[in-house]
Amino acid sequence: MLTLALDTATSAATTALVRDEEVLGEAVSRAVRVLEDADELLRANGVECSELTGLVVGTGPGSFTGMRLGLAAARGLALALELPVAGVSTLDALVAGAPGAVPVVDAGRREVFTLLEGRPVVCAPREVPAGLCVGDGALRHREVLEQRGAEVPPDDDERHLPRARFHSLLARDFGPAELVEPLYLRVPDAERNA
Known about the structure:
This protein is an alpha/beta fold. Helix content is 31%, strand content 26%. The chain has seven helices and nine strands, in the order E-E-E-H-E-H-E-H-E-E-E-E-H-H-H-H.
């Protein structure tokens, strides 16, 4: 299987081209570059769009705008290329990159997205279980987490990125793009303020 995977739910967007379990290439940038990154990965590996067999997209939780951008890109590509799509949680991808770690994604509003008892939740940083904490939320709330006994790797540690290669390796249920939904854990700011 040859998949193009992307995640735009956090402050760093990741894109990967994966054949079976071999990573052919990966890029890290900003969400607005995700399609450019995908094109560059395909060209660098001499892969035509028609050779892709599936798309994988990060479903969050994370930035509302970022998640929507990634899903829109995946849906557009799936429609244009007639490809099935699988969604994978950004939290699960972080754990895949740092087995045993607590994934912590910045949620804004002085909150984070994490896993509690295996379930995705939004909570205050002080509610995150102690342990090895990875993700942009762990970086942003390092002081609070470390005061609670958590270990947060250095800012430049790769484990803080929800690498798209892990999305591709975790993907299982491919199907119509319109069935892949973002993982919202709270009402978007625009709706809340209306």
